Amino acid sequence: MTDLDELRAELNEFAQPEKKKGLSAKEERIIAGFEEIERFVEEHGRAPQHGEDNDIFERLYAVRLDRIRALEECRTLVTPLDHQGLLDGTYASEADSIEAMDDDALIAELAGAAGTPELTQLKHVRSSAEKRAAEEIANREKCEDFATFEPLFEQVEHELKAGVRITRPFGKNSTIEIGQWFILDGQTAYVADEGEEFDSPQGKKDARLRVIFSNGTESNLLRLSLVRALYKDEASRRITEPDAGPLFSETWEEDDIESGTIYVLRSLSEHSFVVEHRELIHKIGVTGGKVETRIANCAHDATYLLADVEVVATYKLASINRRKLEALFHRIFAPAQLELTIQDRFGHPVKPREWFLVPFYVIDEAVQRIRDGSITDVIYDPKTARLIS
Questions:
Q1: Any residues with CB less than 8 A from the CB of 15 and at least 6 apart, and which?
Q2: What is the secondary structure of 82-122 as a DSSP string?
Q3: Under DSSP, is residue 385 helix (H, G, I), strand (E, B) or coil?
Q4: pLDDT for 281-303, tens place per residue?
Q5: Structure confidence by residue, pLDDT tens digits, 18-51
Q6: Helix 56-70 and helix 128-138: axis angle, to 10°?
Q7: CB crowding 74-83: b at 16 or more within 10 Å, else e
Q8: DSSP reduced 3-state for 172
Q9: What is the pLDDT of residue 39?
Q10: What Å distances lie between residue 347 and 134, 267, 342, CA to CA?
Q11: Which of 23, 62, 125, 258 could pair covalently with 48 via S-S, beta carbons 3.0-4.6 A apart?
């Protein structure tokens, strides 16, 4: 090769692909399919590979790349776009199986690969993603700090028995977030933490989760893997938040007017008194907006003891005067109002209201009494920890 030929070859390697005019629909789909492969390579740093252990989309891309390499018509079409050297045959291919197919069949399958849903769906076949989900669920390790989570599991079990929480099927479009509870393979599962979110090969958002199980084990699995496992387990359930439903109504009708939410909070303050009595100290309030919004800046608000809080329970309200209801709660639990003074951010003494030394089950009983109308003329007795007339 002459020096001029070498120079021409180098320049061609960096040349901008010639803009195609008048491409057919089939050619556009082939180019789009090749560009999907290039995006995969940019994201993963390697060409797509075959193998049952790989994601179904990666395997699809690998087959698609093999077909492009095998068909002269396709190679010619996408060569100007190949800035990653995907067509030089460096990576493993399935040439033998491709040669067994005629050109028309290969062109037809390749043209449809970018746009027809049938080629991205395997029917009656257990995908590698499903296998990986099952493996991640099975590969559990001992949870070294399970003692930290054990009281939460006991509380959820108590709330299920009391009807404060219920279980529902893990349905379509269900989401998974930190703090949620599920039943999977007969074990209660708690989503304790979530890593940084990223895009999966399928184009969906995914993240690593830390999931704690009631048998004292834990698993560091992908969120999408947990979703697949919950779908696969016919007996799986989602445990609802502690929400007893709308007051003064057995069912929530479409024309009901939602007037607010009763919320019960537990403080995560490191104040010595709070730490000692954390399971008994609750904040009871009523809001007309979202509870999450109400507590968003709790760590900077003296009303919330300048600390983060845990939502213990919420109850929807229908057509009820929120202020009167909140005043009723404060009257009932006045004998157990928390006597605690803290310093706000400016060093001024603050005595937060709405905090009470009351077990949660008594608060829940008060809500039930409001629902059935038996709340009249009762008050809380701190000595017996009961509601009395």
A1: 80
A2: -TT-TTSS-S---HHHHHTS-HHHHHHHHHHHTT-GGGG--
A3: coil
A4: 999 888 877 888 888 888 888 78
A5: 444 567 878 888 888 888 888 888 777 788 888 7
A6: 150
A7: beebbeeebe
A8: coil
A9: 83
A10: 54, 20, 9
A11: 62
- d(CA 65, CA 70) in angstroms, rounded, equals 9
Give me the pLDDT at residue 137, please. 53
| pTM, rounded to two decimals | 0.38
Note whether 144 and 187 are within 8 A (CB). no
Q: What residue type is 238 in one-letter code?
A: R
Give the rounded distance of the alpha carbon of 213 from its chain centre.
17
Map tokens 């709340």 to a residue: 375
Q: State pLDDT tens for residues 139-177.
A: 788 999 999 899 889 888 887 877 777 888 887 656 788
Cβ contacts of 332-341, under 8 Å, gap ≥ 24: 332/366, 332/375, 332/378, 332/379, 332/380, 332/387, 333/284, 333/358, 333/363, 333/366, 333/380, 334/379, 334/380, 335/379, 335/380, 335/381, 335/382, 336/380, 336/382, 338/281, 340/271, 340/273, 340/274, 340/305
Q: How many Å apart are CA 142 and CA 148, to the nearest integer?
A: 13
